[in-house]
From TrEMBL:
Taxonomic lineage from the root: Bacteria, Pseudomonadati, Bacteroidota, Flavobacteriia, Flavobacteriales
Protein name (Swiss-Prot/TrEMBL): SRPBCC family protein
Organism: Paenimyroides ceti
Length: 130
């Protein structure tokens, strides 16, 4: 299952956005209002929970300075990645898009597609809070 957030523009440099997203604790600023838990485990990992959904542990998997950060599920039970693509549009203008890729059975995909789509859209729309 592949989902994309809308592209959002932020009046910050790509380097600023990359550094902000590279600091795991900043993800708390991006979380939706229905977040029931947010806990930084270490500099590369955090756990979050949304009301009505199981807690998810995300780990930084890969990064390309100023252009991309890839987070992935710490557990192999629900394999997925969340990729932030960062594209500089000017010295103080950056476009960001989040991509969610996961391998789920048809039933699971049907159940989580709506909530995950809304989740990544909220994360993207909150980028201006960084």
């Amino acid at each position: 299952m592949n989902l994309e957030s809308p592209k959002v523009s932020v009046e910050k440099s790509a380097a600023y956005i990359f550094n902000a997203l590279n600091d795991i604790k900043n993800f708390e600023k991006l979380m939706p209002e229905n977040t029931s838990k947010f806990e930084v485990v270490d500099e590369n990992c955090f756990i979050f929970g949304l009301k009505g959904m199981p807690e998810i542990k995300l780990v930084k998997k890969q990064q390309t300075p100023n252009t991309q950060i890839i987070l992935g599920a710490a557990s192999d039970k629900i394999p997925f990645t969340l990729t932030a693509n960062i594209e500089e549009k000017g010295t103080e203008s950056t476009e960001i898009q989040l991509l969610f890729e996961g391998t789920f059975n048809a039933m699971m995909a049907m159940m989580i597609k709506g909530p995950i789509s809304k989740f990544i859209e909220t994360l993207a729309n909150n980028m201006s809070k960084l």
